[in-house]
Amino acid sequence: MLIKTQPDEIQSFLVDASYMRDGYADRVVLPESGEQVAEILAAATRDRTPVTVSGAGTGTVGGRVAFGGVVLATDKLNQIRSLVKEENGGRAVAEAGVILADFQKFVDSEGLLYPPDPTERGCFLGGTVSTNASGSRTFKYGPTRKYVERLRIALATGDLIDLRRGDLRADSKGRIEIPLGSGRKIEALLPSYRMPQVRKTASGYYVVPEMDLVDLFIGSEGTLGVIVDIEVKLLPKPEGFLAGIVFFSSNESLLKFVTEARDLSLATQQSDQRVAGRLVPLLEKALEISVRDTFPPPPAVADEAAPGSINARALEYFDNQSLGFLRQLYDTIPKAAVGAIFFEQETNVTTEDSLMREWEALLERHNALTDDSWFATNEHDQAKLREFRHQLPVLMNEWFARYQQRKVSTDMAVPDKEFSGMLRFYETTLHTSGLKYTIFGHISDNHVDVNILPRNDDEGTKAREIYLQFLKRAAAVGGTLSAEHGIGKLKRDYLNLFYSDEHLREMAALKRAFDPAGILGRGNIFSETVLDALR
Predict the structure, then answer these.
(1) Are 313 and 307 in contact (CB under 8 A)?
(2) Would you call 143 helix, strand, or coil by DSSP?
(3) Those residues with Cβ within 8 angstroms of residue 346's Cβ, 6 or more apart along the chain or in another chain
(4) CA torsion angle for 491, 484, 228, 91 (degrees, to 10)?
């Protein structure tokens, strides 16, 4: 185990992509095993020393920015332990400090796919589980939660637990019980709130009736335990794909294109689910068994779209302001373009021609600038399109660093019926503010990132006032504070717009059951005041 104490050695562990300032810690420890993580936590609980878990530093909400105590860095937990191929995909086991991009490259080399794809793929696998990370492919495949099969977790008490999906569930009254190796057990009550009716959320603890307890730790932001090992399920690698950056000269045409592309894709997904649902009872009748009870449901196959059926795995939005920034790097963006959509569709030998025709017809119906748009049907060209999409967050981060301003960026998602009104509210408010901004991101999931770009402290104050207006609007229409980045320290003071005081106390009480001394991730999700009130 490596221990760092010199200020110049530990400074890089006290910052992340939120640009939150003034973090400090007594030391940074870098364990090399789950047992060492457990030892560190047991000692910290005994001495009541705060512990902040540090991943790759790609988080945007200040989660790893410590304010005292010890930083537990997972950098040396960096081994891919195993990969097993199965009939409908496979599974792999990796440590929490494995870089996501490295893991996905390894999986790809084995002819498999790990779908979660946050924009920043330099993150650690453990960090993606801790925030239930999602990305552009979430529209088709869902967030990280859907792929986690097993977790090995070090608790603040020094216990190591191994949770496999399906082993432990909450009862009908929300009570949970987790046996510990020492003969003790953790007993707790889940919060009573209902999850927001949005396509994805990473706001507070995940709670559903009779939930699998693996899901409690996914998205808990290192406040309930430290994830050390992860087993995930994998899908077959898609055979081929069609991708494009499509430009529009009219926002109205662009939004109508998105609506139809999304509706067609959802219809295809639902059709596939109905077909699978009809096959199960037929098989049960033939075999005189319960397929659902005897066999786990197979994962979705990545390239099963029927000929001619549009089924986008990604639909990403760029507003006019975003294109203005990107023109610094891409002078071939058409001058007439006021917005763009990045799309991806998986194909195979049977479907590629018919799908190309379907997408061409869809683009023509909505007056896209097809001749000036960019398309890809091979991995090399697709990588260039994805690079275009990923350049915008890089440009935003460079802006915040240049002007030394704290990041002001939304991460809200709203229900389907509320999104068009929410987007208009963003645009109208920002247009009249006089501030620079961009709007881009996961439009298919009713979740776009609004980056407000202050150049000085006065503009920073104004930006945060506007941000608060956006939060209140999202809460009023049943949205979520964070769709994918989590709460951390940067957003914790806004959580009470989305949850009642009683619900926050219930969350804090749940944390206390796993972390009696309150050492883990202090200041993340809720303030220390809320935790200390339960002592």
Answers:
(1) no
(2) coil
(3) 238, 239, 240, 241, 302, 303, 305, 311, 313
(4) 170
CA atoms of 478 and 117, how far apart (whole Å): 26
Alpha carbons 389 and 126: distance in angstroms, whole number: 24
Q: Which of 85, 80, 63 is nearest to 14 (CA)?
A: 63
Closest CA to 495 of 528, 465, 525, 452: 525
Alpha carbon 231 to its chain centroid, in Å, reads: 17
Model confidence pLDDT, tens digit, residues 356-369: 999 999 999 999 99
Note the pTM of the prediction, 2 decimals. Answer: 0.90
β-sheet bridge partners, residue 192: none
Other C-beta atoms lying within 10 Å of the C-beta of residue 302: 21
3-state helix, strand, coil in the chain (%, to 5): 40, 20, 40
pLDDT tens digits, one per residue of 193-218? 999 999 999 999 999 999 999 999 99
| C-alpha span between 95 and 98 (Å, rounded) | 6
**C-alpha 368: how far from its chain's center?**
30
